[in-house]
Write a structure and sequence with these properties.
Blueprint lengths: L5 E7 L5 E5 L2 H4 L12 H5 L6 E8 L4 H4 L3 E3 L4 E3 L10 H13 L5 E4 L2 E6 L2 H17 L3 E2 L5 E4 L4 E2 L2 E2 L5 H9 L6 H11 L9 H11 L10 H11 L1
Parallel strand pairs: 1-4
Antiparallel strand pairs: 1-2, 3-7, 3-8, 3-9, 4-5, 6-7, 10-11
Helix pairs in contact: 7-8, 8-9
């Protein structure tokens, strides 16, 4: 079973690099987790007050034994992941535990799964802190993808694929441009879009309770003036 490859799907990302998605559901049934506390990103980012920010995405190497489980099949050949794929059911636990061993103690660093965020009050302190971060990565033989690093920025949009709880221009624009929903599917799509900001908007649950009720299976969808007013208020 360990060497049975899984088919995969390749697609082009915005960075003009190929991302590979492998279906590990069959393998995940046989993996035993070692639960490790993964903190909520809201608590993690609460440490950031001001200063320059740097974020990078690291990859954890797989052991030789586990690497034999990483074999997958393309249309022409067999391949094998050398790094731990995030789609393993154990990946979140292992990434968080590993990253906290490497960078869990410096007060100017946040680690979340495979992402790193370093923050400082001024450029001088930030460069000194980055030297500490890079030295730790070198000591533990961890690598960072330069294309996914943002160094000496006033703010960053995200920590890899995890939201950093900041307004993002593209998300804001998409929400403001969306038209009134014509059915439950449209409404559910809108509520999914604004879910990104759920921890940033006070009383969001109360604000969207009326709209959420309309998505229920047993509730009719008579879109009325009160719903439209609520919809526009939530968008704003």
């Amino acid at each position: 079973m360990a060497r049975k490859p899984r088919h995969h799907l390749s697609f082009w990302s915005t960075g003009r690099s190929t991302s590979i998605v492998v279906d590990f559901r069959a393998l995940n049934k046989f993996l035993r987790r070692s639960p490790y506390y993964v903190p909520k990103i809201k608590r993690k980012c609460g440490k950031v007050d001001s200063g320059k920010l740097q974020t990078g995405s690291d990859r954890v190497k797989s052991s030789d034994r586990k690497s034999t489980l990483n074999i997958f099949l393309s249309s022409i050949w067999y391949y094998q992941f050398n790094k731990l794929p995030m789609r393993y059911s154990t990946a979140a636990d292992e990434y968080q535990a590993c990253m906290e061993r490497i960078l869990g103690d410096p007060p100017f660093v946040i680690v979340y799964l495979d992402s790193i965020l370093s923050f400082s009050e001024n450029p001088e302190d930030h460069l000194e802190n980055l030297l500490i971060v890079f030295e730790r990565l070198r000591r533990y033989d961890a690598t960072s993808n330069p294309r996914k690093c943002s160094i000496l920025r006033d703010q960053v949009d995200k920590m890899d694929s995890r939201s950093l709880l900041m307004h993002q221009a593209k998300k804001d624009e998409a929400i403001l441009q969306i038209s009134e929903p014509r059915n439950k599917n449209d409404l559910s799509r809108f509520l999914g879009m604004i879910a990104y900001y759920r921890v940033m908007v006070p009383n969001k649950s109360a604000m969207t309770s009326r709209l959420n009720r309309l998505t229920s299976k047993n509730v009719p969808f008579p879109w009325i003036l009160e719903d439209a007013v609520n919809f526009e208020a939530v968008k704003a």
